[in-house]
Amino acid sequence: MQPLQNAGYDRAITVFSPDGRLFQVEYAREAVKRGTTSIGVKCPDGIVLAVDKRTTSTLVESTSIEKLFKIDEHIGAATSGLVADARALVERARVEAQINKITYSEPIRVDSLAKKLCDMLQLYTQNGGVRPFGSALIIGGVYNGVCKLFETDPSGALIEYKATAIGSGRSAAMDIFEEQYKEDLSIDDAIALALTAINEATEHENTSDNLEIAIINKEDGEYNKLSKEEVTAYIEKVLVEDEAEDEEEEEVDDSDDIDDE
């Protein structure tokens, strides 16, 4: 019987495999991939965060599922992966934001907060007796009129994006962003793009019960979570636009068939 290739190397976070891998970190990434889809889009007018709150039972109160969090007045976060781990990360981020405000009498920079959080994530990949956080965050905010959007990783790595997604539907959502993202999007267009990406990434019908959207406007620099009525209006708008595009495509196909005849 041949021994497993990773036998022994995944028993502790401090042990590298012969090819330089930390299996516990990779397992944590798998936990994120199994989570629901979360979206972040940056545009000149602000930041849009959208999350899919997929529920496994009709008995679950959707309002009890938290995937969007307000970190500070000007910063928000969308999470995917283990909910409890995400909650712990959000609480740490909130504390760091308040420490900066008390110490320096000014709001924390978005990139500084993201780096501080990732410094803590990295510590949990280098010490025995702990495990990496099985959660990733999309951190977005506005500081001094500049919009920033970051994605964290369980390893502590940090990447800035124009538009990104985490969770089970990441690949499908990123394909939509690659095709349709433009740097001159308005807030409404960014919300529509985020909803289109979530629709492509999820298999169930999206409603205001399982979708949440938050925006941080560049104008006032404040985090604002949309109401159910506002989310419903955006969903209906996107559905109408998608139906119109489908009809146009069908008309083009029909005209091509006539030309062939």
From TrEMBL:
Record keywords: Cytoplasm, Proteasome
Could you tell me which residue ranges the Proteasome alpha-type subunits domain spans?
Answer: 9-31
Q: Where in the cell is it found?
A: Cytoplasm
Q: Name one GO biological process term.
A: proteasomal protein catabolic process
Gene Ontology terms, MF aspect: threonine-type endopeptidase activity
Name the family: Belongs to the peptidase T1A family.
The name on file for this protein is: Proteasome subunit alpha
Query: Where is region (Disordered) located?
Result: 239-261
Q: Which Pfam families match?
A: Proteasome, Proteasome_A_N
Gene Ontology CC entries for this record: cytoplasm; proteasome core complex, alpha-subunit complex
The protein's organism comes out as Methanobrevibacter millerae
**SMART domains (alphabetical):** Proteasome_A_N
Tell me the domain of life. Archaea
By its UniProt entry, which NCBIfam families does this protein fall under?
A: arc_protsome_A, PRK03996.1
| Entry-linked SUPFAM superfamilies | N-terminal nucleophile aminohydrolases (Ntn hydrolases) (SSF56235)
Query: How is this protein activated or inhibited?
Result: The formation of the proteasomal ATPase PAN-20S proteasome complex, via the docking of the C-termini of PAN into the intersubunit pockets in the alpha-rings, triggers opening of the gate for substrate entry. Interconversion between the open-gate and close-gate conformations leads to a dynamic regulation of the 20S proteasome proteolysis activity.
The family database entries (InterPro entries) matched by this protein are listed as: Ntn_hydrolases_N, Proteasome_alpha, Proteasome_alpha-type, Proteasome_asu_arc, Proteasome_asu_N, Proteasome_sua/b
Q: What does this protein do?
A: Component of the proteasome core, a large protease complex with broad specificity involved in protein degradation.
Regions of biased composition (Acidic residues) lie at 241-261
